[in-house]
Hints:
Elements: H1 19-30, E1 35-38, H2 45-58, E2 62-67, H3 74-87, H4 92-102, E3 106-112, E4 118-124, H5 131-144, E5 151-156, H6 166-177, E6 183-188, H7 192-200, E7 211-214, H8 220-232, H9 240-249, H10 254-271, H11 277-290, H12 292-301, H13 304-315, H14 323-328, H15 334-346, E8 350-353, E9 356-359, H16 362-371
Helix pairs in contact: 1-2, 3-5, 4-5, 5-6, 8-9, 9-11, 10-11, 11-16
Amino acid sequence: MNPFSYGTIVRSPYFFNRHDECRRIVSTLSGGNNLVLFAPRRFGKTSLVLRALDELENENYTCIYFDFMPVYSRESFIESYSKALIAGQSNLQLAIKAVSSFVKGIRPKLVFDQAGNPEFSIDFTENKINEKTLGEILDLPEHLASPGKRFIIVLDEFQEINKLNGENFEKLFRSKIQHHQNVNYLFLGSRTHLLNDMFNNKGRAFYNAAMLMQIGPLPQEETIDFLISRFASSGIQIGQPLSLLIIEQAGNIPYYIQLLAAEIWQYVINSTQKIDKELVIKCAEKIVDLKSDYYYELYDKQSSYQKKLLKALVISGENLFSSGYTKQFRLTAASTTQKALAGLIESGIVEKTEGRYFIADPFFKRFITRYA
């Protein structure tokens, strides 16, 4: 079995390090504070959060994970959110009774599937969801929790609440949770520029609503040790220089490190070839080949100026709006660059961390270098 994992939530033994970040998440939430976690795509934030939740559950917290991405309306939010809250309770019947008493706009019920497993569902008692029902649902965690039974609620892809009546929903949400005494919230999402604006913009409802935490690349030495040990579990030897090369080729991004390492492992297992520099490069190129149709389509969708900017970002992601950068890469006005960059960030092609812009997918970057 391949000793590397990507594309799904990563758990032990595939998950590694982030010990300091995990401790900070646990201590912040258990200390009674809300937290917003910033990280570029593929940095493993969801895997990190779920690991922290495991520790919090061991400390007798009730932990609820809710993903805003599938939510498309107020009705779908109420249905999905209430189901997530009920699913986290040990006694479903008591929880359903609590929902019935606290939320008047819905009628919860417990049914059983063909295998006899209980399933929670709701009927709406109103034709249109009003603010009162929505507010009662947002207050539901506080009613279900108690000083001896505190809740931790993770709201993933939180920026997607913009789909639910925009800032009015934000204001209602904030007005409710700021009074919760037995529930703490962890906010995260993949569109970091939107999440950042929600919590750092003085004009937004969630300004100063949570402590801010940003996670960056994994520590290099620990990543090298991880690669060496995981390859060794299959009897494959790889030293520090080649481990470092894998990290570099994968842009030092956890998801892509595991992706490239998995491809190398598969090649070695099938060919019995030893890992060397040429093999690492060959496997990186193979990933580009496998995804080339997608990359061609992605690149072709961009405007001419965005393509030009992407070529520049392959070389440097610093001081994009300086006269020197503009001259070096033959760009035009800074305002044009800002507009093109905003589009690339919105689509997730480009990310920003520590003042530096970079192409989020290192293999797409490799594609641009090869073909553009």
